[in-house]
Specification:
Blueprint (H helix, E strand, L loop, with lengths): L4 H19 L10 H14 L2 H28 L1 H6 L5 E3 L5 E7 L4 H16 L3 E7 L5 H16 L5 H9 L7 H10 L4 H7 L3 H17 L6 E4 L2 E4 L4 H14 L5
Parallel strand pairs: 2-3
Antiparallel strand pairs: 1-3, 2-4, 4-5
Amino acid sequence: MPAYRFPLRSAAAVAASGFLFLAAPAGALTDKDRPEIEAIVKDYLLKNPEILREALDVLEKRQSQEEQNKQRQVISSNAKLIFDSPRGPVFGNPQGDVTLVEFFDYNCGYCKRAMQDVMQLTKDDPKLKVAFKEFPVLGPGSIEAAKVAVAVRMQDKGGKYVEFHRRLLGGRGEANKERALAAAKDAGFDMARIDKDLQSPEIADTLKESAQLAELLGLNGTPTFVIADELVVGAQGYDTLKSKIDAARKCGKATC
């Protein structure tokens, strides 16, 4: 909050003094009057500092609303890639009436926590579709693990991806290529094919698609969920996700 004090005070003073200049008759005020006017404005703000907080609250709400409107437009314009990309592994009901999209990183501790919520949601809600988006932002190990995960998705035809996902995301220690390969092997995948598929351009294309969507949406962390026309940032828990899924089912939006 302190970082906003000086800019906000300056902006308020400039705006107020500008208002006085505009409101005064032509020629009534000059640059010579500015120091006196600014002194009056400063004195008023110092005596009524709550105005600064009110102005900041209005500014933050306006910026938040503008950001939400921008995100909704991006979601609408890229709905096919966000909710139905063939590069996004699906869990739950593939024909579900509501889709929960999760951008995640295998080294994200909050993603590990959120995984339990997502798994429980699919268990409790037979109409829910979950789509995963690889978003490796926590270093080289995350990128290595994501590449193996894409190779797993390329091979998966029987819904085994989620078993790999659980093993790797739920495991201890840093996720990297070695641990991702071990998780794939334990989940029953063809390791020779994974080695081959790791050389496929599909790996880079998949990660590029997720990265571009994340950039458009303005994402800067994981986990981030997309539900209907809204972003849900962070591991906010089962109840929050469920309420937004229920709202999306009811009115087509995460918040009715």
